[in-house]
Write a structure and sequence with these properties.
The protein is of the alpha/beta class. 51% of the residues lie in helices and 8% in strands. It has a single domain (3-166), classed as Rossmann fold (3-Layer(aba) Sandwich).
C-alpha cells in the first residue's frame, strides 16, 4: 500500500486508548489530512494525535479532488472525512488495489472508498495487522487493546469482538 488515509473515527478509537503508533504497522505513508486533524478535539485523543504527528505523517489535502468527492457523496455530509475520499480519488490505481487504503469506522466512508478501489479497514483491523506484523506486540497485548477500544465507545457485537480477538490470536 502506498498511501493510507486515516479518518476521524479511527483516530478517535486508537487515540482514546493511546495506540495511534499501531498505524505504523502498515507498509506505506500514513496520511491524516489537516481538516481531519482539526476535527479531533476530544481528550486524550487530541494530545495523543499531537504526539503521533511528531513522527512526520503527511497532512496534505488533495484539493483537486474535493469537489468530486463531495459530488459522489451527494447529500451525505461527512465533514472533514471528505478529504479522505479526495485522497482515494487522487491516488487510486485500477491496476493496483493496494495503492491506497482507508482506515475508518464510518460505513459511508468505507463503502465509498472500497467502491473507488481502495482497501479498507477499521481500528480493529489496525490492531490485528500490528499483531501479525510486529514481533513485539503479543497476541495477549493485542486482545487487551481490542477490548480497551471496545470499552471506549467503538462497540462491537459479541460475535464481531470475538472474531477480532480470534484473528489476533
Amino acid at each position: 500500500m502506498t498511501r493510507i488515509y486515516v479518518g476521524p473515527t479511527a483516530l478517535y478509537s486508537l487515540g482514546q486508548v493511546g495506540e495511534l503508533s499501531l498505524l505504523d504497522a502498515f507498509d506505506g505513508d500514513i496520511v491524516i489530512p489537516e481538516p481531519v486533524i482539526d476535527e479531533v478535539q476530544i481528550e486524550p485523543t487530541a494530545t495523543n494525535l499531537a504526539e503521533y504527528r511528531e513522527s512526520g505523517i503527511e497532512t496534505g489535502v488533495d484539493e483537486d479532488h474535493i469537489d468530486q468527492a463531495r459530488s459522489l457523496l451527494g447529500d451525505a455530509d461527512l465533514g472533514p472525512a471528505v478529504t479522505v475520499l479526495a485522497g482515494v480519488l487522487a491516488y487510486r490505481d485500477s491496476d493496483d488495489r493496494s495503492a491506497v487504503a482507508v482506515v475508518s469506522e464510518d460505513r459511508t466512508v468505507r463503502r465509498m472508498a472500497q467502491g473507488l478501489g481502495a482497501e479498507v479497514t477499521s481500528s480493529f483491523g489496525v490492531v490485528v495487522r500490528a499483531a501479525i506484523e510486529d514481533k513485539y506486540l503479543k497476541p495477549t497485548q493485542a486482545k487487551r487493546i481490542v477490548r480497551r477500544i471496545d470499552q471506549h465507545g467503538m462497540h462491537l457485537t459479541g460475535e464481531l469482538r470475538e472474531r477480532a480477538v480470534g484473528e489476533v490470536a
